């Protein structure tokens, strides 16, 4: 008999691709995902799975190289965010379609942050697309989403690993995928010496006269991503101390850079391998 699980998917930029590999392994081992709660990329991947579109999204991201990712960036001249995100979100909208959260076959919660009230917001009904877009709006990078009186940004700001929404679930297990795990020794990278952040920084300097890069290791995007990840790491520790899942699958925070959305293949595979090891160990002691 299949064991039912509540799945908590954390935030962490491009590392969110690892969620795809984890989900594939969970299904391979016969677990039935009955509920999903996610922040930021966790909300996106969870939503795609819940509406049966994860495989289609996976095929798309596996074909994205660095320059195709850059072509998807639509710059905004608004002070609230550097990127509008319409190009990327148009692709996501075409994949998902017009779906209400309450009509999904499994329970789903997307977490966003309301800047007006400084509180987290749970999307458990209404437009799935609105929920995703609010949850993935990284502050200063993507323009915030305004829904009524709310100004909504990335859910990972206040809750990078939202376990609370699944506490009342009647499932056999709660499994959380934490994208802010301890660092590991990285293998030599195959990618171009110029990272996504470096190339995007150069593009902005050349085309918008923006002086962002100070030296080889510090630039605007590095500062933003590291600031967010520092806060998320601390919040995640408190979250896990207060609400311990049955199984935590940790994805190291340094397997890729925050914006390495052109490395889907490697990140998905890392998630798959990590989940395989953790689930095998977990089943030995169950």
Secondary-structure topology with pairs:
Blueprint: E1 4-9, H1 18-28, E2 32-39, H2 41-50, H3 54-62, H4 66-71, E3 81-83, H5 86-96, E4 107-114, E5 119-123, H6 128-135, E6 140-142, E7 145-147, E8 150-154, E9 173-181, H7 196-208, H8 220-242, E10 247-252, H9 264-285
Parallel strand pairs: 1-2, 1-9, 2-4, 3-6, 9-10
Antiparallel strand pairs: 4-5, 4-8, 7-8
Helix pairs in contact: 1-9, 2-6
What would your notes on this structure say?
Strands 1, 2, 4, 5, 7, 8, 9 and 10 form an eight-stranded mixed sheet that branches. The protein is built from nine helices and ten strands. Strand 1, helix 1 and strand 2 (32-39) form a beta-alpha-beta unit. It has helices spanning 18-28, 41-50, 54-62, 66-71, 86-96, 128-135, 196-208, 220-242, 264-285; strands at residues 4-9, 32-39, 81-83, 107-114, 119-123, 140-142, 145-147, 150-154, 173-181, 247-252. The protein is of the alpha/beta class.
Rough shape?
A: globular
The averaged pLDDT comes out at 85
Which structural class matches the secondary elements? alpha/beta
What is the gyration radius calculated from CA atoms?
18 Å
């Amino acid at each position: 008999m299949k064991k039912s699980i509540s799945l908590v998917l954390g935030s962490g930029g491009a590392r969110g691709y690892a969620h795809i590999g984890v989900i594939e392994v969970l299904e391979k081992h016969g677990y039935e995902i009955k509920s999903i709660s996610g922040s930021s990329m966790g909300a996106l991947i969870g939503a795609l799975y819940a509406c049966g579109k994860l495989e289609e999204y996976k095929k798309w991201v596996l074909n994205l190289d660095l320059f195709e990712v850059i072509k998807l960036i639509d710059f905004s001249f608004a002070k609230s965010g550097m990127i509008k995100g319409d190009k990327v979100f148009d692709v996501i909208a075409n994949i998902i379609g017009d779906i209400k959260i309450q009509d999904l076959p499994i329970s789903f919660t997307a977490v966003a942050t309301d800047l007006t009230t400084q509180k987290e917001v749970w999307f458990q009904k209404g437009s799935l697309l609105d929920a995703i877009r609010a949850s993935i709006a990284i502050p200063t990078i993507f323009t915030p989403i305004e829904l009524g009186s709310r100004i909504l940004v990335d859910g990972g700001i206040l809750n990078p690993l939202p376990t609370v929404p699944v506490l009342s679930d009647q499932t056999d297990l709660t499994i959380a995928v934490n994208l802010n795990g301890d660092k590991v020794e990285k293998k030599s990278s195959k990618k171009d010496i110029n990272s996504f952040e470096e190339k995007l920084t150069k593009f902005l300097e050349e085309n918008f006269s923006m002086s962002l890069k100070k030296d080889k290791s510090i630039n605007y995007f590095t500062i933003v991503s590291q600031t967010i990840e520092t806060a998320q790491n601390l919040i995640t520790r408190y979250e896990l101390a207060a609400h311990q899942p049955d199984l935590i699958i940790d994805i190291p925070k340094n397997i890729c850079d925050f914006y390495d959305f052109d490395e889907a293949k490697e990140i998905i595979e890392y998630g798959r391998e990590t989940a395989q090891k953790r689930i095998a160990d977990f089943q030995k002691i169950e």
